Amino acid sequence: MFIHDTPAAFYGRGIKITSDILEKWYLEFNDTIEEFQNYLLNQTFDNPLFTSWSLRLKYRETFIKTIIGWLEKHNNTEVNSQWYDIIVDLASRGSCEQDWCHTIYILDNNQCVIHRQSTALLSHGLTGLSNWPASIYLGDYLMKRIYLLENKRIIELGAGSGLLGSALLKYSDKILSYTFTDYSPMILNLLRQNILLNFSDDQFNKQIKIEELDWNQYSIDENKQDYFDFILATDVIYDPSVIESLVKVIKILLQINKQCSAYIANTIRNESTYNQFRQALNQSSLNICSIDRDIVQSIEILQLTFSS
């Protein structure tokens, strides 16, 4: 699984930190506030895992200012001078925001995923240049059940920057093959960069594939049928105009291998668009099962199988 509630997990992934979160960690730490400061530094700014990668500068500044502000509110607490040294160093680099940064996702099997992404949620008119919550949610769901994917051939539709597949491949070395697909050349280029950051050339060539896939053009090719055991997709329901084509691709892949399952996770941001997707699935005559849902984040995981 992804590690979520530690200073390293927050810092590496660029998650907003608050005084309440710091207070919670401090109470759980059960030691002096001086030792707690050393712990925070060891987990974040002094952590070798993060020193080689361009974590978002704006986030680092906010992170450390929040820590200093929280420490200054504690009576008779001496703030470690290293915090001030770091904030001065960050300020000396200027206030220009990066277009690209790295995030680092820590897994509970002592592996991590180093991930390059855009600092903008929507960049160059594309949504696939940064990570979205459903990929993390489906990743957690599948890593708890990693046996489902072992010795299986997997295809991911709309893989974006590749976080889901990278995490699954880091979690198990028994996945037979993983094919990342997307359509935009810019997204495919970023995807390739992220795979090369995390995997050897040998693993890339033998186990991992990156392919361009245009949902509008996809059809069964009798001379070259793509045979997969699992279909994965996350946060692909945002544009009503592509829903029909997406459902068609899923149905074709399930039809080629009738033992195949599709796991589709989406954050429900627009009820109308999501209902349109569910309606298209119903009309496709696929078997549809809601297997998990997060009410707080409005994320649902659907399992789709071919209806014989």
UniProtKB/TrEMBL annotation:
Q: Record's CDD domains?
A: AdoMet_MTases
Which is a Pfam family this sequence falls into? Answer: Methyltransf_16
Superkingdom, natural source: Eukaryota
Q: What is this protein called?
A: Uncharacterized protein
